[in-house]
């Protein structure tokens, strides 16, 4: 009897459950595909056109929509919920449908100069607090900005340091120093951007830095001079300024269609040289070579003597001086007069020797 | 170019438009062509109200033909940072025409042309409509959405268009709006319903639907679908978004978490267990035992 009761009770309980769920169960041949993250449901069941045409179209569509929506709501109600500000909220999972992006994925930015250095040294970024305790004002002040802790600009008294000029304006000095720092920062920022985009960065010397050497200034001047429409040919020069050497171009090529007679002569000479059985002797080159050999031998001899530091230093200097002197005199066009070349070479040699001592 | 972000506001503006790991909601531009009918203009206005905060409605007519020349679309998308568009036009050859399109990297990805056969606008609806900006539930019915290539792309485009911002949680009482798309007999029926949650016996409510506008009967006309490799490129996700796999952790079918620990080979005789002094063998005994064993072995052999 008890068993019957239990069975009956179980059957009744099941029936009750079924009743309860009847209002929300929907029978479908194929289960729907759900993407709850996007609140999306896809029904792949075939729709019978007979049903569609038979009934009122709208009613059919509405009942179909109701069934599908019921199934989607059932899925959503299975999600974990929480209470946020008196409202019950269901936490959605990540959307599973693959949709195309709007733009390409971002490229990794190349590290700035500082970031590279910090990585190399292992320097970590330290998070700083926004407010700092100010002893003078006895309150919390900003680290930077309006009413900051250490504000240079508000000082009414600046002591003149011992080694400074008494007539110098210290306040103006502070202002200009600040401007320079700002400009330098801006320059570095732009340089970082240019480097990241592989743009052309103007070379050293052309952008102003604090200390510029004579070479940098010279280079800057020449670049500024040649950046006119006529390549600097009509720019005025200072009284003692020498015309600049050819700073950029290293080779000069003859124009393709230029002087025909010159070209013809050059080609004929070339053929002659190639056809020659005996090798051509370039006097200047020979002389220079000889001189260099002699210098080398002298230097080696001195070194072997074991002069010490002085000797080595002297050697270096002598080598340079002699080389310059000899070459400087030697460059007088190809194959100058043998006598002149020899005499020049000899004279040059003598002069440089005198210069050494 | 560099000088654009001199102020913090402009910097924020540029950052919002720059390519990102997780992108913003896609904005849509809704525009009219050279000639439009009342049906088309009303439909455009209704769809604009459906997609309200993330859509732009252009008032003036634009005399372009997207299928022939997509440069003006690309120009507009660059100016307004919109990657979806809806272009409505009307002429004798293609009456009541709607072109849904999307762009990738400011170039046209897909364009699908649909013709409106029958429509009902928002203003014809008697009941109360859903508030602006509710995230709609999307339902697609009909097996052609899964089988036919063009329908598959159309489904993806419609999801992209109507889904709204991706949220982590949704208010259960706020699930009011349902957009239902049915593909049947070469036609696509779009219906929009308001969802009423009624009491049922258990926790999950019973759904009753109330029709609100707009409702459209659409016919698929021309399509301009992206090539397979461009489509693949558009779907490429940046590596940083992939969830990092934790090594030596696996999950069971039942959801049990298993871990793997790698050990060095252990000498079990040298294990430090509980010491019981009484049981410890003394030196002499141990040797005697060994000797006994050896004798026995010898004897047997």
Automatic annotation (TrEMBL), chain B:
Entry's transmembrane regions: none
Keywords noted in UniProt: Nucleus
Asked whether the UniProt record includes Nucleus among its keywords, one would answer: yes
Q: Name one GO molecular function term.
A: rRNA binding
Location in the cell reads: Nucleus, Nucleolus
Query: What Pfam families does UniProt report for this protein, alphabetically?
Result: Brix
Q: Which InterPro entries match?
A: Brix, Rpf2
| A biological process term (GO) from this entry | maturation of LSU-rRNA from tricistronic rRNA transcript (SSU-rRNA, 5.8S rRNA, LSU-rRNA)
Q: Where is the composition biased (Basic and acidic residues)?
A: 284-293
Which family does this protein fall into?
Belongs to the RPF2 family.
Q: Which domain of life is it from?
A: Eukaryota
Name the GO cellular-component terms.
nucleolus
Please list where the region (Disordered) is annotated: 275-301
Location, primary (coarse class): nucleus
Name of the protein in question: Ribosome production factor 2 homolog
Segments forming domain Brix = 26-229
